[in-house]
Amino acid sequence: MECVTAVPSPRPEPAGPSRTGRTSLAAALLSGALGAAVTLLATRQEWSEGTATVAGGAFPLTAQGSDVTGVPAALAVVGLAALVAVFAVRRAGRLAVSAVLALSGAGTVAAALLGASDSTALDEKAAQASGDASATVGALSHTAWPYVAAVGGLLLLVAGLLALRYGRLWPAMSGRYERGGAPRPRRAAAPADPDRPEELWKALDRGEDPTGA
Description:
Layout lengths: L15 H28 L2 E9 L2 E8 H4 L2 H15 L5 H25 L4 H11 L7 E5 L2 H22 L30 H9 L8
Antiparallel strand pairs: 1-2, 1-3
C-alpha cells in the first residue's frame, strides 16, 4: 500500500504590485513629460488675433500664449520639476510632491481655458499702436492653441494623480539603498598593522611596550 504524502509546493509571490508599479510609473513619466512639452509648445504659439484702428486704417495684431498669460508655462516647469522630484523623496515627501504635480496640471488647465477668451493682451497692443489708452481691439478671434495647452495640463494632472495613487510602489533615487530596498552593508575597517610606525607611536603614547611579546 503506497503512502502518499501531500507536500505543499511553494507558491510564487504574486507579481501584481510590481507590475502595477512599473506600469503606473511608465504612464506617469510619459504623461508628465508629454504634458509639460505640449504646454510649453502651445504657449509659444498664436492664441488670438485682431485689428486696431490706426490713422483711419485697420492694423493687424496678434498675441502669443505667453503674451496672454505666463501661468501655464510656469506651472508646466513646476510640474516637470515635481515629476523628477518624486523619485528623490519618500513617504510623506513623495505625497507632497505628487500633490504639487497634480495641482500644477490643474492650474495649467484652468489658466489655459481662461486665456482662451481673454482679450487683455490685444487691447494693450491696440492702445500702444493707436496711441489711445482707451482703444480696444476689433475683429477679435482666437485659435485652438489655448485648448492644446489645456490638454498638456490635463496630462500633467494625470501624472500627478498616478503619483498620488501608485507612488508608494515606485523606486526612489538613493545611494544608500540597493535595488531591493535593503541597506548596503558597511565595509569592516581593516585591522591595524602593529608594525607600522604610526601604530608604534600610538602604543608608546598609551604606555605599552610595542616590542613586548
